[in-house]
């Protein structure tokens, strides 16, 4: 989920804290005969041209060797074209451009700035995959997995490239691009899981290919007046979203997206095509619902329960004050402390704290601090609840802190699709982007407002921070089929998913290092506030220190055991991902055992 309402802000301040750039090393090489590193182009183990040609035949001619999209702007590159460069530059901030390209991702730093559409910068393409299988069937995925395993080639999976922790691109790799796996089937009244004797799950469901994006899923389910529990970004694709847990503005009322999963089809690291549900392959079914993408296999399709599309009472609001008001964060801490009560009352939304930003309210040259956001109450056409809660908040702010100003208004939407059409995330892409996040429970939000004040001030130091109300009663009480799922257990008591994002100039090692350090500062600030919670692994810092506990908590040991059983040779590797401790990227991009 990216920022909804404010312009992306540059990196500010100085490097304040340090964070690890490599996961803790808990596992060491045990198979002395296995290659120490994955094969690289030009190396003696790299597959021959004939082997690549054979793979191309197996996948029906869908093996690609694409140039980096920015190469068209570099006169030294074979794909150089002045006209094409103009088009690429014009579209570089468009999420659909990156989603529709076989190797491009939405944030430049995950390809190491190796070929941006700027002729004044270097272009080597070394941050991108060497080959791509444009998979449209499970058999295409199966062939790519088996090829990579047999030939010791690094394997990655790209869906849309909407990936905040950099799993969708890697040097010297074969990429499985599942973007066009969009086949979808609606089950309007019920769904019967495969090989589950006498099991029929009432209610509508959707079976969708892993490449189905939120824009597609919402439009399709709307045709039967239902909706998926999904994200707000249009290019968020079901594969990575579901496997990472999947928060939603509908989650406080209906549960996490992963909680709605009834069945999955996956290609395992051994190259088998399996169906996972409550009756078969139950360990892997548990692991794939929250254990993370690109780890236990490739999701090729998923079946999810649908909910009747609710009418929505929506609200936009803001509260602001001059940036020099020393009571600004006292006010902000108190407002954010009200969020658990809002969620318990049926309210969810996407608030954003802003810290010393240009005055976007009146367009003047002044600077302000405050909070802005969107809230909803599903299943009502009555604004009384939203307006009553916000009236109480405004009244307390006005009575307690002078020199505050604000506004709110409500809008009725006849169904979720109508709300989404006006309120989807429009944030630009094509820049350097690092994130830190933390899940906040009621104690973190209400027990010590001075601690919350300090944490919010630090966490928003780059200009803004989200405090999304995307968990609540339905997440806390969820009972996923098949005996539960592997999402971080802290979700079952979380109310707020807080994120801080740093955007910084490209192709500058010093600034890049400072940005990584700053994410460590953000993470530490929120850990001080909520030491016993964790983070949503799809939207977090790649450089978290105790990432196993931060992303999976007590589930990590079971997840690691399943990983070792289904993928003993580490065919799938990403970081920070379950079981990644046995490998690390070297300075030259090679992936080697540790």
TrEMBL record:
Residues 125-309 form the FAD-binding PCMH-type domain. Residues 1-17 form the signal peptide. This is FAD-binding PCMH-type domain-containing protein. Belongs to the oxygen-dependent FAD-linked oxidoreductase family. InterPro entries: BBE (IPR012951), FAD-bd_PCMH (IPR016166), FAD-bd_PCMH-like_sf (IPR036318), FAD-bd_PCMH_sub2 (IPR016169), FAD-linked_Oxidoreductases_BP (IPR050432), Oxid_FAD_bind_N (IPR006094). PANTHER family: FAD BINDING DOMAIN PROTEIN (AFU_ORTHOLOGUE AFUA_6G12070)-RELATED, GULONOLACTONE OXIDASE. Pfam families: BBE, FAD_binding_4. It comes from Sporothrix eucalyptigena. PROSITE patterns: FAD_PCMH. Keywords: Oxidoreductase, Signal. It comes from the Eukaryota.
């Amino acid at each position: 989920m990216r920022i909804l309402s404010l312009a992306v802000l540059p990196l500010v301040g100085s490097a304040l804290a340090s964070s690890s750039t490599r996961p803790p090393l808990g596992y060491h090489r045990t198979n002395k005969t296995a290659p120490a590193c994955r094969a690289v182009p030009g190396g003696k183990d790299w597959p021959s041209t004939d082997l690549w040609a054979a793979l191309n035949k197996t996948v029906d001619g869908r093996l690609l060797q694409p140039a980096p999209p920015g190469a068209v702007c570099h006169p030294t590159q074979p794909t150089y074209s002045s006209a094409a460069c103009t088009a690429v530059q014009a579209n570089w901030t468009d999420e659909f451009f990156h989603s529709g390209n076989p190797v491009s991702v939405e944030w430049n730093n995950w390809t190491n700035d190796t070929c941006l559409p700027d002729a004044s910068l270097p272009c080597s393409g070394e941050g991108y995959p060497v080959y791509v299988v444009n998979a449209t069937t499970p058999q295409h995925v199966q062939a790519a997995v088996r090829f990579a395993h047999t030939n010791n080639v690094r394997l990655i999976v790209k869906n849309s490239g909407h990936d905040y922790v950099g799993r969708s691109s890697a040097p010297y790799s074969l990429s499985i691009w599942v973007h066009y796996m969009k086949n979808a089937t609606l089950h309007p009244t019920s769904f019967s899981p495969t090989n589950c004797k006498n099991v029929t799950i009432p209610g509508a469901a959707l079976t969708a290919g892993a490449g189905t994006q939120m824009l597609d899923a919402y439009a399709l389910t709307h045709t039967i007046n239902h909706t998926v529990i999904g994200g707000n970004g249009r290019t968020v694709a079901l594969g990575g979203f579901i496997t990472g847990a999947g928060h939603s503005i509908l989650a406080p009322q209906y549960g996490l997206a992963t909680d709605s999963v009834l069945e999955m089809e996956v290609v395992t690291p051994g190259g088998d095509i399996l169906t996972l549900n409550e009756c078969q392959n139950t360990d892997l079914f548990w692991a794939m619902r929250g254990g993370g993408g690109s780890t236990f296999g490739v999701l090729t399709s998923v079946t999810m329960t649908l909910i009747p599309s609710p009418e929505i009472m929506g609200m936009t609001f803001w509260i602001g004050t001059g940036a020099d008001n020393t009571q600004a964060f006292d006010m902000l801490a108190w407002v954010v402390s009200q969020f658990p009560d809002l969620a318990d009352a049926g309210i969810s939304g996407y608030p954003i704290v802003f810290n010393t930003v240009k005055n976007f309210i009146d367009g003047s040259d002044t600077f302000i601090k405050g909070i802005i956001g969107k809230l909803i109450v599903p299943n009502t056409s009555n604004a009384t609840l939203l307006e009553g809660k916000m009236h109480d908040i405004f009244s307390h702010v006005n009575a307690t802190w002078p020199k505050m100003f604000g506004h709110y208004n409500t809008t009725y939407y006849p169904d979720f699709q109508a709300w989404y059409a006006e309120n989807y995330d429009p944030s630009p892409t094509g820049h350097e982007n690092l994130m830190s996040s933390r899940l906040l429970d009621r104690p973190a939000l209400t027990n010590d407002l001075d601690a919350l004040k300090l944490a919010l001030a630090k966490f928003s130091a780059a200009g803004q921070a989200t405090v999304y109300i995307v968990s609540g009663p339905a997440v806390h009480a969820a009972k996923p089929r098949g005996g539960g799922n592997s999402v971080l257990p802290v979700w079952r008591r979380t109310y707020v998913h807080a994120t801080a994002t740093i955007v910084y100039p490209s192709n500058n090692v010093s600034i890049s290092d400072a940005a990584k350090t700053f994410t460590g500062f953000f993470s530490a600030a929120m850990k001080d506030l909520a030491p016993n919670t964790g983070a949503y692994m799809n939207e977090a810092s790649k450089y978290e220190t105790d990432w196993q506990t931060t992303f999976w908590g007590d589930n990590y040991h079971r997840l690691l055991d399943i990983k070792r059983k289904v993928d003993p040779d580490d065919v799938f590797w990403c970081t920070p991902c379950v079981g990644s401790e046995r490998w690390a990227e070297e300075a030259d991009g090679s992936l080697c055992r540790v």
